[in-house]
Amino acid sequence: AGKLPMLLVGILMLVYVVWRGMTNPDAFLSANTNDPNRGQEIFEKNCAVCHEPKQGVPLKAPVLGFYGQEFRLTDRELVETAKEGGHQLPEEAREELSAEQKQEIEKLRETMRKTAAKLSKQELRDVVVFLKGSWTSDAQLEHWMLSHQPKD
Fold this sequence. Notes:
Elements: H1 3-23, H2 36-46, H3 75-83, H4 91-95, H5 99-118, H6 121-132, H7 137-147
Helix pairs in contact: 2-6, 3-6
């Protein structure tokens, strides 16, 4: 007699999780629904000129993951960061730069905004999924956990 209510609760929880994943604008992007191989091609064609994998080029563009906190962003925030031209440097870091360096960074950010604007929403998602594959397993797990917490 006690199995039916437990089964019903389990089914309702599963329906809720699926519904939330389908309706949540910050839903987790995965290789199941996006193409990391296509993301790699897009990245190499459009982004690798400035973002060299695993090694940053000073005053060119940082390695993605340069700040070490990208995994703390939702997938939607990662896509929006690309559209906005990357991260804004922290104020204390900006204070150490010359006027020429600040101008160069702004040029790079504008280039990134223009590049992201040429890509479709699906292409940006594919790039995000490709880049997430380069994160450590700990970063991927923390990102997954943060992305699946309900919003207040």
